């Protein structure tokens, strides 16, 4: 009985991944999107924290 549960679970996982892995349809007239501004902010914050930690060690 336990093996049947694992087999059914594996089948459902495989079917689910196959359904979600279908290629989407892209339109031809899509405009380019600017990069996410939050990434630049996070990068600047990480650099600032790193510099502050290096200064604290000295």
UniProtKB/TrEMBL annotation:
Source species, domain of life: Bacteria
Signal peptide extent: 1-21
Positions of transmembrane segments: 37-56
Keywords from the named record: Membrane, Signal, Transmembrane, Transmembrane helix
Protein name (record): Secreted protein with PEP-CTERM sorting signal
């Amino acid at each position: 009985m336990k093996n049947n549960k694992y087999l059914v679970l594996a089948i459902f996982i495989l079917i689910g991944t196959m359904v979600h892995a279908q290629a989407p349809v892209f339109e031809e007239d899509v405009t380019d999107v600017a990069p996410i501004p939050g990434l630049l902010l996070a990068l600047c914050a990480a650099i600032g924290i790193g510099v502050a930690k290096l200064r604290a060690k000295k």
